[in-house]
Recover the amino acids of this structure.
């Protein structure tokens, strides 16, 4: 890995004087906010949530509410440097694949092409990868290994706003999947996971498989077994899916840019993000449609079908079973988007391919975590590992994820075995 310049480590933007003053005031007020949060956590936290977790949740909500997006980006490392710093801290080999279209794949442990989990991180299209997410990925990998499932964890590094908007991220996920398939990975040995905006990107990717955007490369569904390219390089031509992708897990997916649900309008006071936060994030995403790494795109008219999966036309998701076998969707009972996620899973995804003519139907599973917040499993790892490398106690959803992945990895696939 070549040495990165200061600009390559950060967003290359300095805080203005007024922003420095504002951030200083935010952090000066933080002890008072913490005191209030401790009182609330002691007496008013939801059932099943520990005191420490409740304080962490409300503190993150406070920071999300008071720090602007430009301020957050100026204070943050980019995704690849975050991964490099974390890997060195964990005494793990740094492995970054630099693909076309500014696409990166960061590996937790060695690269593999037998069983792979590809993770698409969240962050409302405006935030980079964060260390708690990497701690979660490492934990899942270790738990799977203990259950006899050795798996490679690949983390997608994609371009965020303001550098690029829709449909760049769909293109980059397609590049990454195409690259993994080109190394010899069978689709039935691939799981793709995304939290929050990462879930939105995955749903956009599935929409692209079912309804290809002409300006982007695609991976064409096909059930005719063919040999995959032996080269690990990614070519512009499509690589067919010789079988459906084994599994997709959507963790607190961002399923709509314009919610009117009860959970959204309640402002979900125990969640990490507020209605105001998500309204601002959605406005930014929508205002950057078509900003595609300097390449103009005219595919604006139907952009909402890809960015707003909850409100797609009827029949949009028919064919889902031809591109993925199993879908797990999870939401927290305390999160802002809970009602929208439940509706999307139960009333839209689960009913895809219900016609008599459908040849395959994806297995859709919905889990609502009691007391859970947005992206709840990541909160298990905010504190990092304990002394000696042991992780803190995990919530009720994390073991469900491990079990679901194990089940998918142990399913026999005659096409893959032949």
């Amino acid at each position: 890995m070549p040495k990165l310049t200061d600009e390559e480590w950060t967003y290359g933007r300095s805080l203005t004087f007024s922003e420095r003053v504002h951030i200083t005031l935010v952090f000066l007020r933080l002890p008072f906010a913490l005191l209030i949060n401790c009182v609330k956590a002691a007496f008013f936290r939801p059932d099943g949530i520990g005191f420490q977790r409740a304080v962490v949740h409300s503190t993150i909500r406070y920071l999300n509410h008071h720090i602007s997006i430009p301020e957050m980006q100026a204070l943050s490392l980019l995704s690849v440097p975050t991964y490099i710093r974390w890997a060195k801290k964990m005494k793990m080999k740094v492995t970054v694949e630099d693909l076309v279209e500014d696409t990166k794949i960061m590996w937790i442990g060695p690269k593999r092409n037998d069983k792979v989990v590809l993770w698409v991180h969240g962050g409302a299209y405006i935030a980079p990868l964060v260390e708690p997410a990497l701690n979660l990925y490492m934990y899942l990998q270790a738990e799977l290994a203990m259950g006899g499932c050795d798996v490679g964890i690949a983390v997608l590094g994609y371009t965020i706003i303001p550098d690029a908007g829709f449909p760049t991220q769909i293109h980059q996920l397609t590049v990454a999947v195409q690259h993994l398939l080109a190394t010899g990975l069978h689709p039935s040995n691939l799981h793709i996971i995304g939290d929050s905006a990462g879930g939105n990107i995955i749903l956009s990717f599935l929409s692209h498989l079912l309804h290809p955007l002409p300006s982007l490369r695609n991976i064409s569904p096909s059930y005719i077994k063919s040999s995959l390219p032996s080269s690990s390089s990614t070519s512009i031509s499509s690589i067919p899916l010789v079988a459906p992708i084994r599994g997709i897990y959507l963790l607190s997916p961002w399923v709509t840019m314009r919610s009117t649900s009860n959970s959204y309008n309640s402002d979900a006071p125990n969640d990490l993000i507020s209605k105001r936060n998500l309204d601002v994030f959605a406005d930014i995403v929508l205002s950057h449609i078509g900003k595609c790494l300097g390449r103009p795109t005219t595919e604006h008219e139907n952009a909402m079908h890809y960015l707003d999966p909850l409100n797609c036309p009827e029949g949009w998701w028919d064919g889902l079973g031809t591109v993925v076998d199993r879908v797990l969707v999870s939401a927290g009972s305390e999160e802002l988007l809970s009602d929208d996620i439940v509706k999307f899973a139960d009333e839209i995804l689960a009913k895809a391919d219900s016609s008599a003519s459908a040849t395959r139907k994806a297995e859709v599973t919905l889990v609502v975590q009691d007391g859970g917040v947005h992206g709840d499993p990541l909160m298990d790892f905010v504190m990092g590992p304990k002394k000696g490398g042991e992780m803190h106690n995990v919530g009720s959803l994390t073991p469900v994820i491990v079990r679901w992945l194990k089940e998918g990895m142990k399913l026999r696939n005659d096409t893959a075995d032949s």
The chain is about 40% helix and 10% strand. The beta strands are 96-98, 104-108, 116-120, 152-157, 190-195, 245-251, 291-292, 295-296, 324-332, 363-369. The chain has two domains: 1-76, 81-411. The first helix runs from residue 6 to 9.
